[in-house]
Amino acid sequence: MKGEKDMCVVGGINNYTAALTNSSAPLVDPTISLMFLAHFVGDVHQPLHRVWDLDIIEKAMKDFYNDDLSIMTHVIMQNITEAWSEEEREWEACSSRTKTCADKQVQVRYGECATGVRCGVRGC
């Protein structure tokens, strides 16, 4: 398998997936194929981070806080000490500093479909 000029990342995903499914005569080391496949899937996924990490925050700041970061920061801090104060106590009460206490929140947020989900369990 070799690269093609101007080939899109989705084409790369298709090529490396095909290479992994053809075990009879691999053109590329399967480990390399898997590494590139994971990398390319991440590349396709990356634009979603822009939406969550930047666009939504900027829109909220404009729509609710008059484009003023200090107001937005103040409201978030106020929510932590007032509106989210019950959750804050739960965060502080978490007995482990190496694991999260998200089990309860997962159950509350996602209900029955999350039954049996445990933090730290592979595949969680």
From TrEMBL:
<comment type="similarity">
    <text>Belongs to the nuclease type I family.</text>
</comment>
<dbReference type="InterPro" id="IPR008947">
    <property type="entry name" value="PLipase_C/P1_nuclease_dom_sf"/>
</dbReference>
<dbReference type="GO" id="GO:0000014">
    <property type="term" value="F:single-stranded DNA endodeoxyribonuclease activity"/>
</dbReference>
<keyword id="KW-0479">Metal-binding</keyword>
<protein>
    <recommendedName>
        <fullName>Aspergillus nuclease S1</fullName>
        <ecNumber>3.1.30.1</ecNumber>
    </recommendedName>
</protein>
<keyword id="KW-0325">Glycoprotein</keyword>
<keyword id="KW-1015">Disulfide bond</keyword>
<dbReference type="GO" id="GO:0004521">
    <property type="term" value="F:RNA endonuclease activity"/>
</dbReference>
<keyword id="KW-0378">Hydrolase</keyword>
<dbReference type="GO" id="GO:0046872">
    <property type="term" value="F:metal ion binding"/>
</dbReference>
<dbReference type="InterPro" id="IPR003154">
    <property type="entry name" value="S1/P1nuclease"/>
</dbReference>
<keyword id="KW-0255">Endonuclease</keyword>
<keyword id="KW-0540">Nuclease</keyword>
<dbReference type="GO" id="GO:0003676">
    <property type="term" value="F:nucleic acid binding"/>
</dbReference>
<dbReference type="Pfam" id="PF02265">
    <property type="entry name" value="S1-P1_nuclease"/>
</dbReference>
<dbReference type="GO" id="GO:0006308">
    <property type="term" value="P:DNA catabolic process"/>
</dbReference>
